[in-house]
Write a structure and sequence with these properties.
This protein is an alpha/beta fold. The protein has eight helices and 18 strands. A hairpin with a 4-residue loop joins strand 7 and strand 8. Helix 6 packs parallel to helix 8. The two termini are 37 Å apart. The chain binds flavin-adenine dinucleotide (FAD). The site of flavin-adenine dinucleotide has 18 residues, from helix 5 and strand 14.
């Protein structure tokens, strides 16, 4: 069983080797970062994904100046809908972070071997005594590749998580698998996915082979906001808001071709819990029902269970 995970994706620009340019992937990385954070006053975070934004909210709360640089125009855009991306961008700005969107790093600046700042692709120089690089990961698939297994953004497995060799399975961050929760294949980076796939192959090894079909879910805590996502919302063609973003408690229901494919909740755990139940089968929920706050989602889920 291959469960080799993924590793830090380095930023390939001049100056990336300078002291103070840090990754966050392992416990050792976290220990170094915690120590450096106490001494840092100006921090640049490269990459506005979950990890970059979670770190930014912690650094701001500790009193550091934080500038987040994101090459796309949508923080967390790989995994969340536009309304959630906008909501979190606004929240980070409100908490005090500066955010430059559509901006990359052309080189990292330093003196005496230590980082002093970055030069952005739009020609600005931002000061920094700590630079956190969080631009995603590289799946650890070399071992599988050397063994002759198919590799394509991770180790390619079938719906039962079996590679092209029937004696080898792959799970977790390193596995690229087909799922009924998305169009085509995915490689997910989440604790839920790693744990549930582990259970699935354990059952397989014990003689109960079945397609892996657990509803994917994710979370991210940033400041006082808890984001919880049920399903995979990438590829939606319509979103419906339930609740009021101004209250800080709301959900975005994401639909594709009229079918609910995922729900992104902010400080709204009840919606998240019911969404996981709905997505485990045919949700049978219309956009109108999702938008109507008086419509009882739990009763809807109970009726589905009874079908
Ligand atoms: C900072 C951070 C925050 C995160 N926060 C969340 C979160 O809030 N929620 C969430 O769901 N997920 C989160 N994740 C993602 C989550 O940690 C991963 O999805 C999960 O750990 C994947 O488990 P895994 O077992 O597939 O891989 P890993 O946990 O990466 O474990 C793989 C292990 O295999 C080892 N290995 C690799 N190659 C070999 C080899 N050839 N031989 C032997 N050993 C090898 C690696 O060293 C590693 O120890 C976070 C990740 C990071 C880095």
């Amino acid at each position: 069983m291959l469960a080799t995970g993924a590793r830090f994706r380095p930023l390939a620009v001049p100056g990336a080797e300078l002291d103070g340019v840090l990754p966050l992937r392992t416990l050792a990385d976290a220990d170094v970062l915690r120590e450096r954070l106490d001494k840092a006053s100006e921090i640049v975070v490269v990459g506005a994904g979950f990890i970059g934004l979670e770190f930014a909210s912690v650094a701001i709360a500790r009193g550091a100046g934080v500038h987040i640089i994101e090459v796309t125009h949508h923080p967390m855009g790989r995994v969340v809908s536009a309304p959630i991306s906008r909501f979190f961008t606004d929240a980070h700005r409100r908490w005090g972070a500066q955010i430059s969107l559509g901006t990359g790093v052309s080189r990292i600046l330093g003196t005496g071997g230590r980082v002093t700042g970055v030069e952005t692709t739009d020609g600005r120089r931002l000061p920094a005594d700590l630079l956190l690089i969080c631009i995603g990961v590289i799946p650890n698939a070399e071992l599988a590749g050397e063994a002759g297994l198919a590799v394509d953004n991770g180790i390619v497995v079938d719906e039962c998580l079996v590679t092209v060799d029937p004696g080898i399975v792959a799970i977790g961050d390193c596995a690229n698998f087909p799922t009924p929760f998305a169009v085509g294949r995915v490689r997910l980076e989440s604790v839920q996915n790693a744990v549930d796939q582990g259970r699935s192959v354990a059952a397989h090894i014990a003689g109960h082979r079945a397609p892996y079909d657990k509803v994917p879910w994710f979370w991210s805590d940033q400041g006082d906001l808890k984001l919880q996502i049920a399903g995979i919302t990438t590829g939606h063609d319509a979103t419906v808001l339930r609740g009021n973003p101004e209250s800080g408690h709301f959900s975005v229901f994401c639909f594709r071709a009229g079918r609910l494919i995922g729900v992104e909740s902010v400080n709204q755990t009840a919606d998240h819990v019911v969404a996981r139940r709905l997505l485990a089968g045919d949700p049978g929920l219309t956009p109108e029902q999702a938008a109507d706050e008086s419509y009882d989602l739990r009763a809807h889920a109970r009726r589905l269970g009874a079908r």
